[in-house]
Design a protein that fits this description.
The protein folds into 2 domains: about 60 residues, no CATH class; about 70 residues, no CATH class. About 70% of the residues lie in helices and about 0% in strands. It contains 9 helices and no strands. The radius of gyration is 17 Å and the shape is elongated. The two termini are about 20 Å apart. With about 160 residues, it is mainly alpha-helical.
Length: about 160
């Protein structure tokens, strides 16, 4: 239970950090309050309105939005992959490791050892080079796990 809590905190922190980075890199669909219901209602309007947006985010099922990529939020799986892509690739090459275990936890995989072995066997397809995008990796990971009948709630 404690391990799942720590991983959840790390994932949520990753999402927040990624949102801040994305905000600087290009205009976003949300303002300082972040993604969620408030971003749909108030968008990226500047000023005190972001307080109301944050309140709506906090009361409007933002955990669901962050987990499943709704309400201008990206899903936790893609965010975790994007932030930890190189570390996940190293762990995947070995078939085990802390970052890969975190990914499999975020994905809701029941048999993490089987999932790690499956991803290791398809490593070159999932991570063909360092310029592969998180979205491409996500698609390849899901395809691999489906093909090998590995049960994960995010697949």
């Amino acid at each position: 239970m404690m391990k799942a809590l720590i991983i959840s905190i790390l994932v949520l922190g990753t999402i927040g950090a990624e949102a801040q980075t994305k905000k600087r890199a290009r205009p976003s669909a949300y303002g300082d309050a972040g993604c969620g219901l408030g971003s749909i209602v108030f968008g990226n309007e500047k000023g005190a309105v972001q307080i109301f947006a944050a309140t709506l985010n906090a009361t409007g099922g933002n955990t669901f939005a962050m987990s499943f990529g709704t309400s201008n939020c990206r899903n936790a799986f893609t965010s975790y992959l994007e932030t930890n892509k190189d570390a996940i690739a190293k762990d995947m090459a070995r078939g085990e490791g802390e970052t890969l275990a975190g990914l499999l936890e975020v994905m809701g995989c029941q048999d993490k050892a089987a999932a790690g072995a499956a991803l290791q066997s398809d490593y070159n397809t999932i991570y063909p080079n360092s310029s592969v995008s998180a979205e491409q990796m996500e698609t390849s990971i899901q395809s691999t796990l489906k093909a090998k009948n590995i049960s994960c709630s995010e697949v």
